[in-house]
């Protein structure tokens, strides 16, 4: 275990529970993007909040390697099993994790959840991959942030994620862009997940790029369901954090 790679983490423990929530931030985000969830859930659950974009530029990453590092991180903190809360792209990482390490997953909650990339999102990703070496990465990130979160009520979420992405650096940005195409089998991953692992998707009704496919494909599986927050964009965990937190809290109480 001593030489195994693991993510640095924020750890919050309370004395009255043995239940753990693992908060997995999205691409371009950081542990700080879970601020409102940490404030709320740290009163009720033990929290592990990996910082996945730190100190990773000395190692090639693929999606299975990311999952392995998450597993090592849980082992390091003596967490046998946990509830996983993912956001946006990290929902695909959580799906893959549930396939590779089902014994470590109680259930999963996906904020701004993604099940698969459709034609439009694949085209946008191809632009990022094509132009990442000739256009400033922050120009690309800002462009995609506006495509995903175009409305005025999305502006705070856009601002937070752009500020966090500025801390990534070019090398780290390219590394995570290169991971995204590896998730093209994500629908197959969902089909491979045990029926014992429940999945809740929480999305804003203004999540124009991802909600339609989330609704379409989640209906195929009895262990998946979707909650929709009205007048809310992709980053529902920030934009309407109170509603998001309450939905997740009720869900977790039902899982107890």
Describe the fold and architecture.
This protein is of the alpha/beta class and 256 residues long. The chain has a single domain, classed as Rossmann fold, CATH 3.40.50. Helix content is 44%, strand content 16%. It is built from eleven helices and seven strands. The chain has a seven-stranded mixed beta sheet with strand order 1-3-2-4-5-6-7, with helices on both faces. Helix 1 links the parallel strand 2 (20-24) and strand 3. Helix 1 (35-41) packs across helix 11 (241-255) and helix 3 crosses helix 8. The chain is globular. The mean pLDDT is 88.
- Give the structural class: alpha/beta
CATH topology (level 3) name: Rossmann fold
Count of β-strands: 7
CATH architecture term:
3-Layer(aba) Sandwich
Large-scale geometry: globular
Low-confidence parts, pLDDT < 50 over ≥5 residues? none
Organism: Methanolobus zinderi
GO molecular function: hydrolase activity
Pfam families: Abhydrolase_1
Domain AB hydrolase-1: 20-113
């Amino acid at each position: 275990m001593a030489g195994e790679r693991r993510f640095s983490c924020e750890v919050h423990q309370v004395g009255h529970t043995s239940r753990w929530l693992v908060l997995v931030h999205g691409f371009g985000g950081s542990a700080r993007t879970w601020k409102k969830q940490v404030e709320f859930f740290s009163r009720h659950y033990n929290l592990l909040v990996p910082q996945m974009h730190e100190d990773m530029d000395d190692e090639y990453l693929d999606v299975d390697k990311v999952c392995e590092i998450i597993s090592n991180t849980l082992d390091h903190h003596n967490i046998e099993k946990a509830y996983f809360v993912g956001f946006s792209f990290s929902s695909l990482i959580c799906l893959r994790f549930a396939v590779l390490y089902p014994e470590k997953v109680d259930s999963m909650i996906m904020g701004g959840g993604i099940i698969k990339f459709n034609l439009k999102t694949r085209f946008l990703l191809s632009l990022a991959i094509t132009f990442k070496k000739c256009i400033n990465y922050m120009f690309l990130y800002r462009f995609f942030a506006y495509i995903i979160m175009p409305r005025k009520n999305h502006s705070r979420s856009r601002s937070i994620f752009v500020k966090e992405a500025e801390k990534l650096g070019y090398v780290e940005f390219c590394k995570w862009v290169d991971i995204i195409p590896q998730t093209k089998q994500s629908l197959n991953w969902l089909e491979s997940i045990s029926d014992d692992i429940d999945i809740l998707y929480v999305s804003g009704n203004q999540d124009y790029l991802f909600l339609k496919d989330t609704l379409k494909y989640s209906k195929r599986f009895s262990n998946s369901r979707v909650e929709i927050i009205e007048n809310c964009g992709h980053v529902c965990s920030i934009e309407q954090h109170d509603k998001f937190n309450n939905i997740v809290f009720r869900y977790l109480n039902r899982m107890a």
